[in-house]
Specification:
Radius of gyration of chain B: 38 Å
Structural class of chain A: alpha+beta
Oligomer: heterodimer
Strand order of the largest sheet of chain B: 2-3-4-11-6-9
Helix content of chain B: 40-55%
Largest sheet of chain A: 7 strands, antiparallel
Structural class of chain B: alpha+beta
Distance between the termini of chain A: 75 Å
Helix content of chain A: 25-40%
Order of helices and strands of chain A: EHHEEEEEHEHEHHEEEHHHHHHE
Order of helices and strands of chain B: HEHHHEEEEEHHHEEEEHHHHEHH
Largest interface: A-B, 87 and 97 residues
Distance between the termini of chain B: 51 Å
Shape of chain A: rod-shaped
Amino acid sequence: MEDNNKNQKVEIEIVRHKGLFEILRDPKQLWKVMLAMFLLIIVLFFGLSIVVVSVKSMYPYETVRTNPYGATILEDEDKEVIYWLFNTAELWANSGIEVKADDVLTIRSSGKMHTAIHHLVSNAEKNKQLDDRWQGTEGEQVSSYKLGKDKLRTKFRIARNNPESILLMQVIDYDNSNLSSEFISRSDPKHQEILSCLNSNEAIVIGKERRNLRPGKDGILHFAANDIVLTDTVIIDMYRQYMDSILAFDKSKNYRIFGPDAERQWNELYNSCIVNDGDIEKELLTKTDLLSALNTLAKREYKEEYADVGLAFKMYDKQKTGTYPVVNELTFYKKEKFRDAWFADNIGSFLIVIERKKQK
Amino acid sequence: MDFDAKTVVDNLLNGISAETKKDLIVKDETLLSKMMSDKDSHDGEGDRIKWDGFVWDLRWDCLFPVTRAVAYFLWSCFMGLVFAFYSAFEWVAFRLTGKRKNLRQSIRTNSVILIGGIISTITMIVVMLVFFIKDVLLFPADNHINDYGTVTMAQPCGVEHNVLLVNSSEFWTETGIRVVEGDLVKIATSGAFYGNLVDFHDSALENRKRRYAPDNFHWKIEDSPSLIQKFKQWIVNKAEVKDEIRFCVYGRNEERDARYGSLLYQIKSEGEIAAVKNCPDKEQAIFQVNPLPDQAFEFKVKKSGVLCFAINDIYLDDSTIVNNIIDSDLQIYKDSKAGKTEKRPLLSEHTLSRIENNPAARANFADSILAGNQSMWYDDNIGEILINVNIERKEPGNLLSFLTKPFRWIFHNKGWMWILGALCLLMASDLFVGIATRRKRH
């Protein structure tokens, strides 16, 4: 204010936002403010990221991911849909899909398989109608030519008394899951039980569709087509039944190939080589009566009839004719520990779709 | 002069009481005009605020001495940079106007900086909200199928998921999946195949095990690296398979991790023919998918192009390979007839019996392969593989890629764990040091 006697003037200057102007005059203060704004952006970014990630984990929206075993997982807020391709030649193929006991699953499958590539090729070569038809995931009616055999074999399948080739599932805990090719060849009884489910009901029948299925235990989903797993226990049971049916057939037909001594020796061979792990071809050479009976059978014109008896096991490659039926494909499988022999000739894949409801 | 209400009132009263004519001027500028005016200038050298230099102030009497000292040091460095910019602008202004201006204390200059900063902050907040809501939380499903049958599902943050079915008998399946240098690709598969239909059939017919190891049935070895070593040892022990590896697409160049029946990939330019082997004098073109247990296989793209897949099998593009196979097989055939070996030749006995001791038939056979049957070893592969290809694009391809990349690094690639871990470690050790020195002082 100037108070001038000659020219009196009152000038009032109103200054607002004094603090702001102090900041503007001091570059250090100004840049502290700028840095604070920048840090605010960073903190906001992290904060929002955490919120978003948390929201997305609780309420996923059209999320797609895969697991190391190739399962494609489409995730939504209330469910997961998983796609996985299963090759039917695999026994208990590991899908890598982890489940909990109280999960609710709906499983559907599609695709076709054939149980015997050599039959397929043979029929195709001869332009013949297929002896064994291509089967879907629900398994199909057994061809008429093997109805009798099927009736006997069905009780040895993984899912007893269920159609051959129907899609099966088993929940196996991580420690015992199929992680390598050694899965099939492991010999401990617990593992053999996992493979064959002979005395357990662990195998779950899926077929074309199973709705609202609860796994019942935590573990990893494994899949197989229903057939017989040739574990030692299964082979022992099957061989016994086969042996008894051959002997019964021999008596019923009155062919009298297997006399009492041959029968006794065959029982001894069964105990030493099938129940235990002896070399059946080697020990057979010491069973003279049995060997003689087999040589006799080999010369008979009705010898082919024995091939269709009971479980109807065939000879294996390089087997001497004079040792059949005592030595047969089953003894070969046991010796070689070829447990998945009846899966190895399957051809075809199933696409499995699993819908899992999210637990609230 | 400072605004003093009492003084104004006194003067007004004095003016009124003195009955002198007073001119009353009230200056009340708006904030913006006040900010943009340059009235307050501190152009004299004595008024200029200068940079304090680098500050390293380590005080052991506080709880986080090193953190505090580092923070002060970084701040002093930052201010050094700021003052350097101010000095540069002042020099430019001097060159243009001839007058020395104190821009660092100029209200106008700093107002512009502050307003710019506020606008940028608001813009960034809005952009972040848009990004998180539109591009992450509510990212629209964009699924489509390309000409090659590959299903592509776009995911947030520049991630793309592709699924396709590959038949093992195809030599280099085109996928139509374009990848760019820097993309991160992850591959996971399901399904299985077998590399020899005749053996598959014959083994079933003869009730025997398949000729090749079970490992060979699956395209991948999902086991531990130790089992991969075991498989390599198996290769060494089984000479016939060792031979087959050296005829394969991957293995011909003596690649050490080559496995017969593995899954291979290559990235080729569009329109280009797929490479059939790696050449020692050229950049590696064909790679093998080598997953580790419980992990999908991943790799970083080094060359842009289109992804192709094939099974590692024998491909007969080279007369040397063909003749090597024929020679090797004829020897095995001869030895097996003489009972000297149980090895089986790769070619059929029918073919070998025809070309044995018949150079013309042998030459015709070799020529027929090279002329149009190079993929005969692929033709007998049986089985399909469902391949999942997950791609994290280096350039997400949206306008907000500057947010996408850090978000992806932090949260998809677990980068936040590293940051948090490092920070916690540093702060914890600093706190420990601070407490220890304080105790010592006391």
